Structure formats: C-alpha cells, structure tokens
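This entry is passed on directly below:
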Amino acid sequence: MTHVAVRTSDMNASIDFYRRFAGLMIAHEREEAGVRVTWLAERTTAPDFAVVLLEMPHAHAADPCPTDHFGFDVESRAEVDRISALADAEGCLKLSARDLGPIVGYITLVRDPSGNTCEFSYGQSLAAASATAAPSAKHA
C-alpha cells in the first residue's frame, strides 16, 4: 500500500493536526482542477507511505463508524499520554489513553479536523498479530 486519500474542508488545519499529533511532514503539494492536494509522510524524500489530503467541501459525518481509523505507532507510552492530553486540551479527544492488552497495546483515539479518527498506539505489533493469526488467515 502506498497511500490513503481523504477529504478535508480545511487543509491548513489538517496539515497542522497531522504535523503536531503524528509528526508527518509535507512530501508533496499541488493544485489540480481547483483541488488542493497535499501528501503527508514521515519523511519528505521518497516516502514509503503517504496520507493524501484533498481539500474540498464535504459534509461531516455526525459520528463516523467507530471502527474506521488511521493507526499510528509511537515510540513510548509517554508519547501516547502526551497526544491524549493535547487532544483533550484541544477538544478532539475521542478515547483517553488506556492499555488494551497484547496486540492492541496502549492507545488513545483522536479526531482530526475533518472528523476522521486517528489511533496512536504503543506496543501494537503487526508481527505479533500475524504470529497469532489462524493458519488460513496468513494466506488470505
């Protein structure tokens, strides 16, 4: 997978959110057919993955599906706590920091300016999750 693209009605607020909460940087910007497009990534040169923001009007869902979210791995429980406190202070906290055990780890859920849910976690390992998957699921 190379990217996920989402709409935003406020590009500057979304860029600021992902910079401050997820540490993402602008890897590419352009305007195409009147739509401002910004790629955000962990590095500006040759990123492996990008969140692509498309600035266009759209209706905000009253309450997006609770399972739909972007997942970001952070370096420590303290970083999850920092993000949770920042989100609480800014009124965008969806779920305060808590430990959900093996596989899920220590997480907090935050809403971005367009209402998308972002999960910030520590101790959530894709390798550990795949190691416990049923044999048939590993080949799906």
In short: The first helix runs from residue 11 to 22. Residues 99 and 106 are 4 Å apart (CA to CA). The beta strands are 3-8, 25-32, 35-41, 50-55, 70-73, 93-99, 106-111, 117-122.
